[in-house]
Amino acid sequence: MSSLDNTRHAVLQVLEEVLGLGGRAASFNDATPLLGAVPELDSMAVVGVIAGLEEHFGFHLADDDIDGSTFETVGTLTAFVANKLAA
After folding, report:
1. What's the rounded Cα separation, in Å, for the pair 73 and 56?
2. Which of 9, 19, 55, 64 has the most beta carbons within 10 angstroms of its beta carbon?
3. Which residues touch 29 (CB under 8 Å, ≥6 apart)?
4. Sign, CA torsion 25/10/7/57
5. What is the pLDDT of residues 2-59, one digit of tens each?
6. Are 21 and 15 contacting, i.e. CB atoms less than 8 angstroms apart?
7. End-to-end CA distance of the chain
């Protein structure tokens, strides 16, 4: 498994746990839309997901690090996390 695959797997774990998806995250791929498509992911849940990502990956996100496009799809969120880890 590549490091991007590992990152995607961990991002999906955080989404699953924070949003309580009942196993649905296992069927998500990079093209799976998130914000506006996953009912559990509302504006309040985004805060929880951010906190979960910070805790899991050990980085801190500033408010201006994130915009709506970050949560567009699983792929955009995974790429965002991978970029933060590489920085």
Report:
1. 19
2. 19
3. 74, 75
4. positive
5. 899 999 999 999 999 999 999 999 999 999 999 999 999 998 999 999 999 999 999 9
6. yes
7. 21
The domain total for the chain is 1
The pTM assigned to this predicted structure is 0.94
In sequence order, what DSSP letters do the residues of 5-71 get, joined into one string?
A: HHHHHHHHHHHHHHHT-TTGGGG--TT-B-TTTSTT--HHHHHHHHHHHHHHHT----GGG--GGGG
- Tokens 């969120």 appear where? 77
> Distance (Å, rounded) from C-alpha 36 to C-alpha 3?
28
Query: Domain range for residue 45?
Result: 3-86
CATH of the domain at 13: 1.10.1200.10
